[in-house]
Design goal:
The protein is α+β, with helices and mostly antiparallel strands. It has 7 helices and 19 strands. Strand 5 and strand 6 form a beta hairpin.
Length: 299
């Protein structure tokens, strides 16, 4: 088993910013004494393949050089195998939002680099979504409804603008507001919740879209997923309360609710747009489960 790190670089992360800064950031780690190899992804899904191949060759320590999407691909290259023989992931956050890391630090790239050099790790839960065509794993969150609509539009039109692009996506989707039913059953509830809602969010960590604190009570190591529901709020109400998404106070709204869960079951009648760790997919979700403390992260 290799003691070296594998740095998986996504040159496209951060609107191409990662491709320009990665070499210098990686060299900084080498000069500080970190032993590592470097691979670069060339297309969506490539980081997953590179990670899976490296894991099979004996690598157990990885560095996500990019953003939330880069980490997502690495995690999917590690699991399910890493559930039996655990792995460690560190970060060089050169992506757009880097939402996951905001649970641990607001210090940009400094704290993750310090954690890499010091070997400072902590256990992190991993979420497993089973859908009609397979299984995916993630560490940040899954959203459906308004949040997924925003992510889809932002990725398609505004991603190069960073956090400003995400805000533009929010405002555009407000103009074409949809409130739909996404039936879910949480833990041992007797019935599916079939009420209309603006969005549902299933969170392992607090932030999304950069600084939006969708799940202020979420914890990455409690063995639970934080389920946040926003009911069928209207455009004016959403506009008035938009700022509360950035400090977590939106949960005080009478149409909002949250609960911690171990398992969620879906009753969707076909695929819907979902946002998972900044990536957007069309999936027919079936079950969501927590793998407690399944991954070590360097933060």
């Amino acid at each position: 088993m290799s003691a070296r790190f594998l740095a998986v670089v996504n040159p496209a992360a951060g609107g191409g910013r990662c491709g320009k800064l990665a070499a210098r950031a990686v060299e900084r780690l080498r000069l500080a004494g970190l032993e590592l190899d470097v691979v670069r992804s060339r297309a969506p899904g490539d980081a997953t393949r590179l990670t899976r191949e490296a894991y099979a060759q004996g690598f157990r320590r990885f560095i996500a050089v990019g953003g939330d999407g880069t980490c997502y691909e690495i995690v999917n290259g590690l699991f399910p195998e890493a559930a039996k023989d655990r792995a460690t992931v560190g970060f060089l956050p050169l992506g757009t939002g880097n939402s996951f890391l905001r649970d641990f630090s607001g210090q940009g790239t400094d704290q993750p680099v310090e954690a890499l050099l010091a070997g400072r790790s902590r256990a992190c839960d991993v979420l497993r979504l089973t859908h009609s065509e397979g299984v995916i794993y993630f560490t940040n969150l899954l959203s459906i409804g308004f949040a997924a609509d925003v992510a889809a539009l932002t990725n398609r039109k505004f991603k190069r603008l960073g956090e400003l692009g995400y805000l533009l996506g929010v405002l555009t989707c407000m103009a074409r507001l949809h409130r739909r039913r996404f039936p879910v059953r949480v833990d041992d509830d007797a019935e599916f919740d079939r009420r209309r809602c603006l969005f549902l969010s299933f969170n392992n960590s607090k932030f999304t879209g950069g600084r939006m604190m969708i799940a202020p009570l979420a914890s990455t190591d409690d063995g639970l997923v934080e389920v946040v529901r926003c009911g069928p709020i209207g455009r004016l109400g959403l506009l008035r309360n938009l700022h509360t998404l950035y400090d977590g106070s939106h949960l005080a709204h009478p149409l909002a609710s949250r609960r911690a869960a171990r398992r969620v079951e879906f009753d969707l009648q076909g695929p819907v747009d979902v946002m998972v760790d900044g990536e957007v997919f069309s999936l027919e979700c079936q079950t969501l489960e927590v793998l407690p403390s399944a991954l070590d992260i360097l933060v």
